[in-house]
Amino acid sequence: MRLLRYVFYRVLQIVPVALIVVVINFLLIHLAPGDVSILLAGEDANPEFMATIRERYGLDEPFLQQLWSYLVTILSGDFGQSYRTGEPVIGLIMERVPATLLLAGSSLAVAAILGTAIGTAIARRPGSFLDTAITTLSIALFSIPVFWLGLMLILFFAVRLQLLPSSGMITIGGPRDGLGHILDILWHMVLPVAALATVWLGQYVRLARVSVSEVLAESYVTTGRAIGYPERTIMTRFGLRNALLPLVTVLGLELGLLLTGAVLTETVFAWPGLGRLIYEAILARDTPIIMGAFVIMSFTVMIASLVTDILYAALDPRVRL
Amino acid sequence: MGRGLRLLRGVVSTVPGALSLAVVLLALVVALAAPWLDLADPVAMGREVYKAPSAAHWFGTDNFGRDVFSRVIWGTRVALVVAIGSAVLSIVVGAIIGAIAGYFGGLVDAALSRLFDVFLLIPTFFLVLLIVALFGASLPMTMFAIALTTWPRSARIMRSQVLSLKSRVYVQAALASGASHRQVIVRHVIPNGIAPILTDGALLMGLAVLTEAGLSFLGLGDQNSVSWGRMIFEGQRQLRLAPWMSIAPGVAMLVLVASLNLLGDALNYAMNPQLRTRGGAPRRRGTAPPPADEPGEGHGAILRVDNLSLAYRVGRRQIVAVDGVSFSLSRGGSLGIVGESGCGKSSLGSALLQTVPNNADFLSGTVSIDGQTVLAGGRPIARQGRLRIDALRWTHIATIFQSAMNALNPVATVERQLVDAYRHHRRGASRAEARERAGAVFDLIGVPRSRLNAYPHELSGGMRQRAMIALSLMLEPKLIIADEPTTALDMLIQDQILGEIEELRRRLGLSLILVSHDMGAVSETCERVAVMYAGRIVESAPTSVIFSRPSHPYTRALIDALPDLTGARRKLASLPAVTDQATCLDACRFAPRCPHATDLCRTVSPPVVTLMDGHDAECHYAADFAPQPREELVR
Ligand code: SF4
Questions:
Q1: Is the pLDDT at A278 greater than 60, yes or no?
Q2: Number of separate helices (H) and strands (E) present in chain A
Q3: What is the C-alpha to C-alpha distance for residues B222 and A58, in angstroms, rounded to an integer?
Q4: For residue A238, what is the nearest residue in chain B, using CA coordinates?
Q5: Does the pLDDT at position B435 exceed 90?
């Protein structure tokens, strides 16, 4: 019951943030150089279409009225149409989401699990040579521009060794159903996932190292040692169990960063996800798609942080509901 | 600017810190000097296209025949301009707004903090991307967009800095002397709060470089500048033909960004050195075999400590926390160890349990618990690779920590923790058996069994402390070390809990060591008292004797600090504050604060004077003080 109330309040807190995102979008459109209706309809839109757009967004009405119309339109899920194809933006974006989720989700899983394990291991010996070396290395890893790493992987594994596919999600003319299809996708995922996971791995090693050693300095860990538990038990039952929770929160907060990496990686590997869509939209100057993607990404991050907060509250007895 | 120098020294004292600082400085020099370096024109096209790296073109040439090496060098300029530009913009705006939020507090703070939170949830890269896509791609626009999304970061840091600074003396003094808010913010608050923001600034710069590169890579880079991101963007299409086009700028970017991030990291550690080494698993210490002449379990005193010394390593300094302490505790006896915080009493407690932190070393000492030696000559005793103390933990020696300090695992119920401890030591005990024991212990200390299912944070302070006591009793230990068991509880509960501990001790025949800063608490609970000062026991005696004939000036001061009958607590401040701890060995440690110090005290360390059987004091004039009634000595 208390959890339910907490969920309710957290959802309430999200609402103003969502509104602000939409308002930012609105202000940007109006501040940007050029005619608003052209930005919304596209440069070579015919006069009739232009007129419907002006009508829909209330462009001939007073400013605040326009803001209101814009809010209503966006919040009803209408992000306008693509210049190029005339298709609704929301549909184009939703179509791409699964591929992005697949890529980002698998990379995240690899990075988070491996990173937590390594970070926990080096937290046992803070200040040691191994700790300094791995910490330095992990900082170097998350300093790599992910798209560049992708290119280097392509260069080595696809061009030099001709081992792995360099782009796309499926082999053209390959199997379209059953196990073969899945294996084909997995095969195409190897390089992009490697690129993304490598960069994120650095983040997670570092995060885990910091939060585990913070927990190990707590007095309940000393109690555990005074009781006489072996270090293994201390690490799992006391250390990791307590450190995992802040890690989950950070995961929610850093999702924006993760999505950025995913978008850039998709561009390199021609992965048919959101990133690719954004890239193509930039090349074609298809502004409604870019705006739609920004709003959807923001909403996604907000909802993700909401979900992690609720998860945290459910997992951690300490959170005051 | 002594602090700046100290920071710098902290940074260069580690290999990654020194290297990263060197790289960042080198990049700065290269960027500034680029026009005067003998470089090929980075934008001049040539006929030699797609040339692999050679002596003439170190990094090869690109699809227009431009020299890649020269372009990478010029790219450094662009990268640093973007990095510094966005970071400075972000920090200036953020620091001012953050300072305003923290300084004025109230509604201003609430509103601004909400705004910072909103930005935390917006995926910044996509906002930057949208801005640049709408307003046109150029370097200034990129910097502006980056700063627009990152300033709340600086603002948040500044806000929390200001909140903690606000109460400091000099800010209060400035305000009292009639300075305006603006003056105080500009002169005192911002300069003092800026250090952590600058640390974050290094990270911001790295982020800015990556963001600019990401934008360029998506085709939203400044068309007129040579940026690394643009070079990779162009190189991507020639990946098969001329891989060097994309390799070189990527490596340059990686090196610069990694250096910036490492520098931020090193700065952070230089400001908070304890962060680097705290926590961790206990390190292995050299062990010794059990001595031949020990009395064995069930014989001799329950605890015997001989010449125990413990020191902490902090940086290059060594701080001796426990300095040659000896005492023993008879079976069923109780001893209070009293002293101010920092006198070494808690270190002594953890030394007995061998739960000292990794930067602590046993310099000397022999400790035996229940007739079994666990430490000899400063080395833990081990047999067949197993520490002796491990076999005694919780079954012979248990501890009660101050529970306000998170002494219980926050993510497990109290019952779970009691049951786990029980089953860890009673191998083969069933869960039901362990539960029954937990219930019995709760009955013993008079807490309803229904509280067993609570998590520590769900209990009141007093209840949590009782849960900790229950945990310590689970395996019927013979000796309990209670380290400030009632600190941070309100007075009424303190008395109750002390009473309960004393009651339990008598009923169960336990031996007890009570570590406390409170002479009063100890007097109610313990048969003997040992007063600790600067790592040494300066006086020890039966409780009644300590109160009737205190013979060390420090003991007298502690007793005088007790609340008198009216309840008003006199401050220990009647003594001068602690100066730097006894630096000179040939003197009484207490001399700098002692109202009776003489030249003898300042040049010769006092001997242990035995005033009567069981009453020792470490003071030149102990014998003179002992018979005097207390009042006469207090001025
Ligand atoms: S030895 Fe001297 S300085 Fe030290 S406590 Fe005694 S009187 Fe004071």
A1: yes
A2: 14, 0
A3: 34
A4: B409
A5: yes
Q: CB-hemisphere CA count at 13 Å for B469?
A: 29
Domains along chain A with CATH numbers: 97-320 (1.10.3720.10)
Would you say the CB of residue B557 lies under 6 angstroms from ligand 1?
Answer: no
Contact residues, chain B, for A17 at CB < 8 Å: 117-118, 121
SS3 B480: strand
Instruction: Supply the pTM of this predicted model.
Output: 0.83
Instruction: Evaluate: CB of B608 within 6 angstroms of ligand 1.
Output: no
Q: How far is the CA of B63 from the centre of ligand 1 (A)?
A: 85
**β-bridge mates for residue B530, sequence order:** B337, B540
pLDDT at B258 over 90: yes
What's the CA gap between B1 and B281, in Å, rounded?
38
Least confident of A92-96, B325-329, B581-585: B581-585
Q: Is B597 in the pocket of ligand 1 (CB under 6 A)?
A: yes
**What size, in residues, is chain A?**
321
Let me know: does B229 contact B125? Beta carbons within 8 Å.
no
Q: From the CB of residue B472, how many other CB atoms can be counted at a distance below 10 Å?
A: 27
Over residues B474-495, mean pLDDT: 85
Question: Does the CA dihedral B107-B111-B113-B114 come out positive or negative?
Answer: positive
pLDDT in tens, A239-252: 888 888 778 777 77
**Between residues B332 and B240, which one has the greater pLDDT?**
B332
Confirm or reject: Cβ of B596 under 6 Å from ligand 1. yes
Residue B580 phi/psi, 5-degree rounding, is: -55, 130
User: What per-residue confidence (pLDDT) applies to B563?
Assistant: 60
- Give the mean model confidence (pLDDT) for residues B478-501: 84
* A259/B280 CB distance under 8 A: no
Find the residue in A nearest to B114 (Cα).
A17
What mean pLDDT do residues B344-367 have?
Answer: 91
- Given phi > 0 = left and psi -120 to 50 = alpha, else beta, which region is B220? alpha
| E strand or H helix at B350 | helix B345-353
| Ligand 1 atom nearest residue B606's Cα | 1
* ipTM value: 0.88
Query: H or E segment at A51?
Result: helix A47-56
How far is B149 from B14, CA to CA, in rounded Å? 32
Contacts of B87 (CB under 8 A, 6+ apart): B147, B201, B204, B205, B208
Helix (H) or strand (E) holding B314: strand B303-314
> Chain B partners of A256 at a C-beta cutoff of 8 Å?
121-126
Give the pLDDT of residue B635: 36
